Amino acid sequence: MVKRKTRKKTPKKKVKVEKEDDEVTYIRLENPLPLRRDILETAIDSAEILQDWENYKNLRVKKIEVYKKLVFVMQKIEKEVSILKKNLPKKSNVKGLEKEHIVKEKKVIKQEPGETEKKEFNTELDREISGIRSKLDNLKL
C-alpha cells in the first residue's frame, strides 16, 4: 500500500474583534415637529403591517387545521357510504317506501370573522399603536 503524505497542521490564528464605541451625534433641527410627526406615522404604519402579517399567519394555520378536519370527515363519510352500499338490497319490490323528505332551513347568524380574531391575536401591537397615536396627538401641529 502507498502511504499518503500528511500535512502538518498549522495552528489557526486567532482574530481579535475590537468593539468600536458607538458615538452619539446630536443635531439641532429648526422645526422638529413635522419630522417627529412623520416618524410617528411611519411607526404606526409599520405596526399595522406587522399586525396584518400576524393575522395572516394565524388564519393560515387555522385554514390548515380546518382542511385536515375536512379530509378526516370526508374519509369517514366515504367509508360509511361504502358500508351502506354493501348492506342495501339490490332490488326492492315494494313501491310505497319512497317518501318526500322535507328539509327545514336553519337561520345562521353571520359574524365578521375579523372582529374576534383581531382582539385575540394583537393585544400587544394594539397597545403599541395606541401609544404611538397618543404621542402623535400630543404633537398637534
Q: Name the average pLDDT.
A: 78
Biggest sheet, open or closed, and with what strands and sense? Answer: none
* Low-confidence residue ranges: none
Cα(first) to Cα(last) distance is: 88 Å
Describe the model.
The chain has 141 residues and is mainly alpha-helical. It has 3 helices and no strands. The longest helix has 56 residues. The chain is flat.
For the structure shown, list the relevant keywords.
141 residues, mainly alpha, 3 helices, 58% helix, 0% strand
Please describe the topology of this protein.
Elements lengths: L31 H56 L25 H9 L1 H17 L2
Helix pairs in contact: 1-3
Short description:
This protein has 141 residues and is mostly helical. The protein is 58% helix and 0% strand. The protein has a domain of 75 residues.
